[in-house]
Amino acid sequence: MSSGHSRDHVAHVSRVLRNAGNALTLPVPGVILDSWRRSMEHYHLDPGSLQGPRILEDHLLKERRERVEDFLRIATGEISRLHGRVRDADYCVMLTDIQGCTIDHQVEHSIRRECRRAGMDLGTCWSESEEGTSAVSAVLVNRTPITVHKRDHFRAAFIDLTCSAAPVFAPDGELLAVLDVSALKSPDDRRSQHLIRQMVIQSATDIENAFFMFSTQDHWVLRAHTVPGYVDSQPEYLFAWDNDGQLKALNPAARRYLCQRHGRVPENICEVFNLDHLPAAYDDSLCYLSDKSLHIRLKAPRRPLSIGVSTAVACDPRIEQALRMAVRVKDRHLPVLIHGETGAGKEYFARQLHEASQRRDKPFVAVNCAAIPESLIESEFFGYAAGAFTGASSKGMRGLLQQADGGTLFLDEIGDMPLLLQTRLLRALSEGEVAPLGAARRQSINIQVICATHRDLAILVANGTFREDLYFRLSGARFDLPPLRERNDKLAIINHLLDEEARNSGVRLGLSEAALELLLNYAWPGNMRQLHHVLRYACAVCTGGIIRLEDLPATLSNGTPVKSVEMPSGTPERQALIDVLVRHRWKPVLAAKELGISRATLYRRVKQHGIKMPGKSSYCHVNSQ
């Protein structure tokens, strides 16, 4: 680019901005003009600059890519397919994050050097505040597809380029990335880029849909299209909701669909579809909804990530996030350390982690290090050969480490492991071999280790009761489980445990409002284990169909202050509504179904009658009539 061309471009930009208010027609689209104005007046950029874009240092680029690792893995395939369709015309494909940094790209080797000089390379930054008007920056600002063609660019360094870009949205509706296709040379007429722009838009949509399906594996997902043949390959609408019917994710088309028909995005799937018209959970067949003129397919949750509760209930977000992170760590062959109070659900967490990991089809061997007598702990862990000692089995015994070969070894209460065993365990983990007692040969093992403790291992190391080298070997990543008193899914846990008792006894029991409030507000020093025992006791002594305060152990009401409970009163309609809620243990979906109303209508009636929903952080106060 010559200095003469640079001066011409500066004059062109200045003239257009100066005359924009009086001109009948503009030489550039309105969004380009607005971006030029911001670039000049707000960011004080030089339109004559011939300098290329800023390039991130390698370690910063690596951090950016690691933040969106799952998304990148899914997007890469479509980026390659798109590049395969445009590479013969010398186009480069780029993917940027929401800061405008290029985190992935595809370019032919023959033009790689020229593209790099033009700024089309990994790590280049295309934000409007730094580079002015470009296709990437325009999408970041306007969140709509665009072609920025040649002299549409604000800076002279880029006026030979033609760039078409489209937004990629996350399942929650937030902008996730920008997909861009650029060429060093092209015809002057911007209409020459129309087909390229459509290809970019379609590829961005395909990436969105693929990432949507990946991100919603734990939810119900409905794919829909007006044409049956496109439901699976290119669904137009995607909806995802949890087991309580709460909408959790929508693709952009589904979001527009709801806004057009409801004026907003509803909270619950029951407001969108008649659930009776949807296929059964086990039915994966194609279905036609005549009232919506849509062909659909419904997919059930694959592997819900929940701790100590069934697939039909929610989970504390902190624990769910910890589990997701732990799966990623474990699948990178790093040991996991789980810390939490006694009874907080550490073994549940470990089992769910194993089930969600790449070793799910291999053994899960759980060991309580505090429960095995010290005299037997070595033979239990490492096994022994036939006749290794007096009283040994004539066939020998495979130790726990060998039983876990290929899978996961869960060491509960690792802080109580004797020092001598710590030394042998460290050697086995370091060398990947185990030596059974009395055996002539060492045997190879391939295990992933998950440890759990309620004690502070760092203090044990300082006191000399736990080996420092083993501590660092086992604590590849630490995850702290909140105690039950701090969890926000106590209602879901209580309902799950009562459902479990109903399956075992054949008797289904409800919960009075007062009893449920006591359970929700108790401090639970024994955590999940104590709650399970309390509910089992209540189910055993309950003589009616509803568990009441008198059915709970006296230690609960004596052991901790409880918030005052609003007892049922008021009109017959209010009392009937409370009765249904109590019968269904305050589950809104089941109560609404019995009443033959939607969940939204149920909540309106609850608010109208001033009923306090147990377990909710805020309530509606309405004077009773």
TrEMBL record:
Pfam families: AAA_lid_14, HTH_8, Sigma54_activat. One of its GO terms (molecular function) is ATP binding. Keywords: ATP-binding, DNA-binding, Nucleotide-binding, Transcription, Transcription regulation. Gene3D superfamilies: 1.10.8.60, 3.30.450.40, Homeodomain-like, P-loop containing nucleotide triphosphate hydrolases. GO terms for biological process: regulation of DNA-templated transcription. It comes from the Bacteria. InterPro entries: AAA+_ATPase, AAA_lid_NorR, GAF-like_dom_sf, Homeodomain-like_sf, HTH_Fis, P-loop_NTPase, Sigma_54_int, Sigma_54_int_dom_ATP-bd_1. The keyword Nucleotide-binding applies. Residues 312-540 form the Sigma-54 factor interaction domain. This is Transcriptional regulator of acetoin/glycerol metabolism. It comes from Azotobacter beijerinckii. The lineage of its organism: Bacteria, Pseudomonadati, Pseudomonadota, Gammaproteobacteria, Pseudomonadales.
